[in-house]
Predict the structure of Coenzyme A biosynthesis bifunctional protein CoaBC.
Amino acid sequence: MSMDAIKMLQGKKILLGVSGSIAAYKAATLIRLLVKEGAEVKVVMTTAAAGFITPLTLATLSKNEVPLNISDHNSWNNHVMLGRWADVMLIAPASANTLAKMALGLCDNLLLAVYLSATCPVLFAPAMDEDMWHHPATRSNVDKLISFGHQQIPVESGELASGLFGEGRMAEPEQILTFLQQHFQQKNGRKALNGTTAIVTAGPTIEHIDPVRYISNHSSGKMGIAIAEALADAGANVQLVLGPTSQKTTHPGITVTHVQTAQEMFDAVTTRYPAAGIVVAAAAVADYRPANVADKKIKKGEAQLHIDLEKTPDILRSLGDNKGPQQLLVGFSLETNNEKEYALKKLRDKNLDLIVMNSLADTGAGFNYDTNKVTLFDKNGNERSFPLKSKQAVAQDIVSAIIELQHA
Ligand code: C5P
């Protein structure tokens, strides 16, 4: 975490709303982290939340009384004042029930009364079982809350209270902390990557055999696009060099250049490189291409057809060879065996600052999935493993690591 990010929460007034979900136990860690960062924390919780974690625990950690009911501690009179006191209201965990009531403007407990009268920005971290998370009612409630201008902290995938695995876990307290820091950084107009140009490569490349055939791979471009969006959210001016994919982005901070072949990607990246502070190479670039491209469709003939292949330019290696002192390079490593060894070798050989390792051996990770499970290795020898998460949440982790390296 950067020094700037650390200072962001000093003296900030955080109103934490805790609703009834097993993830309520994480509220204790979250409060502890916030207090350590110098924030003032006041907690309101629902009676359902008090079934998961005691008000006494949260009151002790936050150093403030925790009202539960509208009749507690003059709460009825105070609910408006609490909403006005806060710089931000964070609802974590936000259960399906609380989200639904917030979307409707219901006001049948203290947390909701405080929410409805809060004039400050609102962030919410949903937590529920996967089926509840995917239910159209929850989807439209979340959309509605976002349309109110509230910010949703992405859910994570993993083991759920039901014992099933899937999407719907509340983000980890450290992740929520990063979101709050970014929220205040943005509010100050001091986004961490303001004024930085970042190049992101994403998607596959296609290498033509003849006018109708090509060699390619299964990359969807989802991970790279998520990184481009996270970098742009952090204030970077992003140049996305995108291979052929149906995935799109409409983020205003991103300029997209469409390319097809490794050579076209190489050319597009190389011309933009001198102006870039950060390059993230998330594209699955073909390693070989046909040495000769037939100008007419190759006709069916002999029992066997041999196509000579030649190496494509290694874009990232060339960037590493020409890296300036202020430039930061991030690569990806996708292997099926000896993953760590190969990842570290690439980090060294290509002169990278950070490498993102993902393994095809992990279920839910890699091509075309909406989730990914990564380990980050940086040039200083740090290794960090993350659980299976949405590609958006993984992108956040990667961007946080980039910001951290920039400040190191
Ligand atoms: O060496 P390998 O292809 O496994 O390295 C993967 C990393 O290098 C990825 O970040 C990928 O985007 C980048 N790469 C590249 N140009 C190539 C091959 C890989 O930029 N021709």
Q: What stands out?
A: Residues 201, 262, 281, 283, 285, 312, 314-316, 331-333, 346 surround cytidine-5'-monophosphate (CB under 6 Å). Confidence is low (pLDDT under 50) at residues 1-6.
